[in-house]
Write a structure and sequence with these properties.
Elements lengths: L2 H10 L3 H11 L4 H22 L1 H9 L19 E2 H7 L16 E4 L9 E4 L1 H18 L7 E5 L9 H13 L2 E5 L8 H11 L3 E5 H13 L9 E5 L5 H11 L2 E6 L8 E3 L6 E3 L4 E6 L10 E8 L10 E9 L12 E5 L7 E3 L3 E3 L1 H11 L7 E8 L4 E8 L8 H14 L2 E7 L13 E3 L4
Parallel strand pairs: 1-13, 4-5, 4-6, 6-7, 7-8, 17-20, 18-19
Antiparallel strand pairs: 2-3, 8-9, 9-10, 10-14, 11-12, 12-13, 13-14, 15-16, 17-18
Helix pairs in contact: 2-6, 3-4, 9-10
Bound molecules: zinc ion.
Zinc ion binds next to loops.
């Protein structure tokens, strides 16, 4: 284990090294071992939540369910599903009553996904340990060592200026993990030659980032006959990795791509292994259920993702519907791991919106902008929608959570100011109800731009 992970534990106040060692041991557990481990963790979390989290006590009492009724894993289906809206409304009752949210061990986080406006919640050290531990175990799967150089194409700090403390911490963490951070949303024809130079100089073994950003870099390298001989793997997240994009990037860099599934509520939910037939659910850390319209388990076809984070005791997510849809496979992976396999995650597909300089972004971009704004102001709204008629121009719509309640004007001005940096022309509309498309479906991103 490299020194850099020990140092990360010191900076982050985590126990990633210890957790990763545990996860290495459970990597090839049998199905029975995984089930037994999950059941124990689930029973503990349910008992704790019934005792310490008012939201779950009320939910359980409403149907006469007691923690002792969870005797086997299938019993989880007795617990009602909580939607994002239910959690948003009940969030004050979701903080465990024996947790001090001001402690350095508790981290404020923001919900993710490409649906709905994010809201703040809390994560304890244990859930962060398992998320990071599983993430670094995945590096082993890809053949990436801690001492290898990495390049990260990400949004953090791209829109909102970070504080000096955030910048310092990022600098130290980047140095320790040998990571070069590149602003994923600043890629355009002016910046790409410099980004290519930086990448060639940094010699990364791994490129990790948003798919649209990796794609842009790949396109530049292909068009200019450039190579990165140091590269061993490319990993992408947040956006759906369509086969044609995968093929293009793999052919350009002559390495394999690895997909990841995570979210603000629970990171490191599933990772692709080197057999490349799906994403293994991190079952030591989370329990994922994929259900159909009647809430029954479904396989081989898209269903709704129902998430239980088995490690977060500060703000538990039990049977939480995160708004994504995914396909659960019944196949056994060739790599020898017995954890469940997701064939694909389809909830992350979204129309592309072009911001300034023809830079393509998806709904995930705007969600990450809200997260960077860290503004409680967004709690006055339930959903957003971006409409584009012409490249570089945006109509940004927000739906009020409460029609009769006023929202502070300062938040509107701040959002508008940030949106104006991104586009040549911006309209911000605040509405009681957002429009649906002709088929009656709600869409987060609507584009009339013809390619
Ligand atoms: Zn596998």
């Amino acid at each position: 284990m490299s020194l850099s992970l020990y140092l990360q534990d010191l900076v982050r106040g985590t126990r990633i090294v210890k957790t990763k060692k545990e996860l290495e041991k459970s990597d090839f557990w049998s199905r029975e071992q995984l089930d037994e481990y999950q059941l124990k963790k689930l029973q503990k979390l349910v008992s704790f939540s019934y005792q310490h989290v008012p939201y779950y006590r009320k939910l359980f009492d409403s149907i006469g369910l007691k923690p002792d009724d969870i005797r086997e894993l299938a019993d989880i289906q007795k617990i009602p599903i909580s939607t994002k809206e239910m959690i948003r409304q009940g969030k004050d009752n979701l903080i465990a009553d024996n947790v001090n949210i001001n402690s350095y061990k508790i981290k404020r986080a923001v919900t993710g996904g490409t649906t709905g406006i994010p809201f703040a919640f809390y994560k304890d050290t244990q859930t962060r340990d398992f998320s990071w531990g599983a993430y670094y175990r995945w590096h082993d799967w890809m053949g990436i060592k801690n001492r290898d150089s990495k390049a990260v194409l990400w949004s953090s700090g791209a829109v909102i200026e970070h504080t000096w403390w955030q910048k310092c911490k990022s600098y130290v963490l980047d140095r320790m993990s040998k990571s070069l951070h590149i602003n994923a949303y600043g890629l355009n024809k002016e910046s790409l030659p410099d980004v290519a130079k930086q990448l060639i100089k940094h010699k990364p073994a791994l490129i990790h980032g948003y798919l649209s950003a990796v794609l842009q870099v790949a396109k530049y390298f292909k068009e200019h006959n450039l190579t990165l001989p140091s590269l061993k793997a490319i990993s992408s997240t947040t956006e759906t990795l369509l086969p044609m994009y995968r093929q293009y990037i793999e052919e350009t860099f002559n390495v394999k791509m690895f997909d990841q599934y995570g979210g603000g509520e629970c990171n490191s939910m599933a990772f692709e292994c080197d057999a490349h037939i799906g994403l293994h659910v991190t079952e030591e850390h989370c329990l994922l259920e994929i259900v159909d319209e009647s809430d029954s388990y479904c396989y081989g076809k898209p269903g709704r993702v129902i998430l239980t984070d088995l490690d977060n005791y500060a703000f538990p997510f039990i049977r939480y519907e995160n708004g994504d849809s995914a396909i659960m496979s019944q196949k056994q992976c060739d790599c020898g791991r017995h954890s469940k396999l997701l064939e694909s995650i389809s909830g992350r597909t979204a129309d592309v919106i072009y911001i300034k300089d023809d830079v393509p972004v998806t709904a995930a971009f705007f969600v990450s902008m809200f997260i960077e704004l860290h503004s409680d102001w967004f709690e006055h709204f339930t959903r957003f929608q971006v409409y584009q008629k012409k490249k570089g121009e945006l109509v940004f719509r927000l739906e009020k959570a409460n029609k009769d309640k006023e929202y502070p004007e300062s938040g509107r001005i701040e959002l508008l100011k940030n949106l104006q940096k991104l586009a040549n022309k911006v309209e911000l509309e605040i509405l009681d109800n957002l429009p649906y498309d002709k088929s009656g479906k709600f869409r987060y991103v609507i584009s009339d731009v013809k390619e």
